[in-house]
Amino acid sequence: MRFSAFFFDGASRAFHHRPTFSKLVVILAASGGGLVAYADSKSDHAIESSRVAPKKKVVVLGTGWAGTTFLKNLDSSLYDVQVVSPRNYFTFTPLLPSITCGTVEPRSIVEPIRRIIKKKGGEIKFWEAECFKIDPTSKKIHCRSDIGTNLDGNGEFLLDYDYLVIAIGARANTFNTPGVVEHCHFLKEVEDAQKIRRSVMDCFERASLPNLDAEERKRILHFVIVGGGPSGIEFAAELHDFVTEDLFKLYPMVQDLVKISVIEAGEHILTMFDKRITKFAEEKFQRDGIEVKTGLRVVEVADKNITMTHKSTEKMSVPYGMVVWSTGIGTRPVIMDFMKQIGQVNRRVLATDEWLRVHECNGVYALGDCATISQRKVMEDISAIFKVADKDNSGTLTVKEIQDVLDDICIRYPQVELYLKSKQMSDIVDLIMDSKGDVEKESVELDIEEFKRALANVDSQVKNLPATAQVAAQQGNYLAKCFNKMKDCEESPEGPLRMRESGRHHFRPFRYKHFGQFAPLGGEQTAAQLPGDWISIGHSTQWLWYSVYAS
Amino acid sequence: MRFSAFFFDGASRAFHHRPTFSKLVVILAASGGGLVAYADSKSDHAIESSRVAPKKKVVVLGTGWAGTTFLKNLDSSLYDVQVVSPRNYFTFTPLLPSITCGTVEPRSIVEPIRRIIKKKGGEIKFWEAECFKIDPTSKKIHCRSDIGTNLDGNGEFLLDYDYLVIAIGARANTFNTPGVVEHCHFLKEVEDAQKIRRSVMDCFERASLPNLDAEERKRILHFVIVGGGPSGIEFAAELHDFVTEDLFKLYPMVQDLVKISVIEAGEHILTMFDKRITKFAEEKFQRDGIEVKTGLRVVEVADKNITMTHKSTEKMSVPYGMVVWSTGIGTRPVIMDFMKQIGQVNRRVLATDEWLRVHECNGVYALGDCATISQRKVMEDISAIFKVADKDNSGTLTVKEIQDVLDDICIRYPQVELYLKSKQMSDIVDLIMDSKGDVEKESVELDIEEFKRALANVDSQVKNLPATAQVAAQQGNYLAKCFNKMKDCEESPEGPLRMRESGRHHFRPFRYKHFGQFAPLGGEQTAAQLPGDWISIGHSTQWLWYSVYAS
């Protein structure tokens, strides 16, 4: 190894000196099951400046919409921040379908996390690894490097946290359908999109080979999309454009044999959109020759056949060349395990409160596709609300008393506002008057039972947020801002009144602002459902859509 | 399968009708070992127009520089052309090293073969498959589809040819060194370059993980290039620029640990260039901190160590993170098998004559990296040349007689001209006068022995052409032009006099025109060796280099 030393000698001469690296102290610590390397990135601060209180450790899991937006908006000088993700880049997911057809280059839709970190001053640490276990009791996470296998030992390490931000998204949901993992493409990562692109081209090359009969060529050129949601529909539309505009010119001898099918379990595609959009999309697809088959549930995907059942009929089997599976999201194993630990069993995603805090789990936040906010119901807190409003402890509420806490109620329980809107009422007092009948406003007094009756139906307006990039990005932004003002808000809270305890919440709860939902339908046609029941279908809609994300 | 029929019903409605496909007749034929599908792409012509002589079938193997240049320049209306290659695109190989470092996008350096075919009118057929056996006796080739595995049967088929153009290039030469295939990267295809890029990034991510000691990080960040030829040196230079200009900014904590080494078995790098270029490159690399280790032969590549021997010393082992193997070209198995069949044993590449025809193999041409021209020696033909020149059968040659056949000799044996140039003579007569001593030019008469003596040393100038893109492209262009004028030249040959038979050769033999050789050395520095012993080193040289290829 004399030679080796000689070889390495040049390194320090060759490249500039930077002492940064020495700051990382690596300690070995015993943990359940064996030796695990342990990175304590804070120990240097402890030695250097024992007078100043050490910064709180924030660990961010994931570099998708939620994690990256959080990271970008966080004031990283306030915390000791570490990011863990198997992907060292952020992906602009709305353009993934465009990569499958070569409209856009992969490089154009990714942003390296280390570049974001550098822009923020470089203090943040990034580990390209996957968190495979969260231990909320000891406030540690277990990570494993995802890069190659020739890493010393098992490539595992532990990280401490004071605050944990879980934003690892979801995986494709196969509904445990046999053969899906083995035979289908997914459309979640850049690699998926690139694989789909290669696979489409391969199908055309394969169908052009000399040793096949026409049925076999037809099979190879049958492209099936399972799932009629926005991703599946956009991919089908992009594929149709790609095939008719580009591939037919290059493979004229097989163009009669190409077929694109969309299989949807529901009665229509794009059911989350307005009916007018669904109708427009279905008609456009029919004109384009894309077959939309609804009411079909896929029960098995074999090597060359996909089997499905219709409501009342027996099984049907269809030969295919390529299947893209796009039926919504499933739970990652680490979230499953974590939910079991904290007693959130039989759930698909982590439940958080309106401040994105995981229930019963100090210092842990969850956002994006791996979490959902369980909005507190008015009726659960109705006695507490009554008590808070009833300042003079008279046992009844006057209109004045109600109006005094009205803002806090509306902030804490957004369903109240939604309910009023649905009833075309301008004020909670209208609701009360409605329940009390023909009485003078000033003289109204409500007891607890009357108050309950007045608000009995507001919780019907509680809705889960969709698993979209828009929601994730807004949550990341919201949470970063909370972290940035954490100290200020501890001293002067800005949130609504606590109903079951005294004082105020530190922050206002997260509130989603819907900018509309978009569905590109091919041929430069995009349908959009905008806030306030507006519908837009046409050429320019797409640019509107990008601008929503760009903002 | 009722449902399936229903599913496929839409296809003909959905996409335009094109009858082209039906022209392809697929026949099953028994062949040695089992059933093999058999594509007779000519049968339709035979039926449609039995009066007209059917076009000759040209099969082109390979879509590299030689095959693609041939295809682009061929008048494809004259032949029934089929192209077989596992890659349905041409790669601009000089830019492969730029892909490894992300300077250039893969898409920018590839050209789909089907697009080239379309530009030429679409008559040419392309099969994405690999030829695994050439049968020159029955004039058939055996092909196997390379796409996926879910092709019916074994995916094999047979093609007939009248003319076979072999242009399948070479593979990386490992010299059977243990561990090279398993652990090293190569740099021949776009996929190789993309893998290298990912691997470089992975090394930096892996070296940044928390659970490693400094030695391990150093190992991971040791990039080794084996082979000091133009490809290896260019890659080393590109990697250095990528690392210092981009990656150091993103991974400041590990930059002291990075090392790039070039290992060369010879005494210098870039030995095919002028010594001034070699010296410049070695000095530039030293300044850049790239370690150049010469006189070292790699004997084994293990998981994390590369072992080599120096002339007089024992084995040395060096830890590494990534190795790129770039030590020249090796023979593809199908060429090896073909050479065995035609008696070209113990050769590295196919031997052809000066018209790129494979020796003793009717209708088979070979060009590019899989072939080399064995230039006919003057001394082998000296009696025949004498006989042709001695028109009056006097047994002696006058200067006039020699001058009459001089052009033909120089065309047939380019070494004569090279020899004269090396001796700074303007004419073969000078050579003769030189050998005859002080005699009047007009009165010179040479007998066969004197003629032999005069030309005794010219064959020392016979040189093999290098395995470069320039040579391959010129050969492809040359051969296409020969094919385009094959009919004309049969009637009025344009080649030199045949020495051992009567008449003229149909075509002039292939003659390589050297436009210079280029070696990008990083930091926008490129060294160039131009024809006529000119050397250029500097910034603008690179554009000169691209322009050579662009032409």
Description:
Chains A, B: It is a peripheral membrane protein. The structure is a homodimer of 551-residue chains. With 551 residues, chain A is α/β, with parallel strands linked by helices. Helix content of chain A is 35%, strand content 23%. Chain A has 19 helices and 28 strands. A 9-stranded mixed sheet of chain A has the order 1-2-9-8-7-4-3-10-22. In chain A, strands 12-19-13-14-15 form a 5-stranded parallel sheet. In chain A, strands 16-17-18 form a 3-stranded antiparallel sheet, with no helix packed on it. The relative contact order of chain A is 0.11. At the A-B interface, helix 1, strand 2, helix 5, strand 7 and strand 9 of A face helix 1, strand 2, helix 5, strand 7 and strand 9 of B.
Q: Key terms for this structure?
A:
nine-stranded mixed beta sheet, 551 residues, five-stranded parallel beta sheet, homodimer, alpha/beta
Blueprint (SSEs and pairs):
The structure is a homodimer of 551-residue chains.
Chain A: H1 2-14, E1 25-31, E2 34-40, H2 43-48, E3 56-61, H3 65-73, E4 79-85, E5 89-91, H4 96-100, E6 110-112, H5 113-119, E7 125-135, E8 140-145, E9 156-160, E10 163-166, E11 171-172, H6 180-183, E12 184-185, H7 190-207, H8 214-220, E13 222-226, H9 230-250, E14 259-264, H10 275-288, E15 290-294, E16 296-301, E17 305-310, E18 315-319, E19 322-325, E20 329-330, H11 333-341, E21 350-352, E22 364-366, E23 371-373, H12 382-389, E24 397-398, H13 399-412, H14 414-422, H15 428-436, E25 445-446, H16 448-455, H17 469-484, H18 486-491, E26 517-520, E27 526-530, E28 534-538, H19 541-550
Parallel strand pairs in A: 2-9, 3-4, 3-10, 4-7, 10-22, 12-19, 13-14, 13-19, 14-15, 21-23
Antiparallel strand pairs in A: 1-2, 5-6, 7-8, 8-9, 11-20, 16-17, 17-18, 24-25, 26-27, 27-28
Helix pairs in contact in A: 3-17, 7-8, 13-14, 15-16
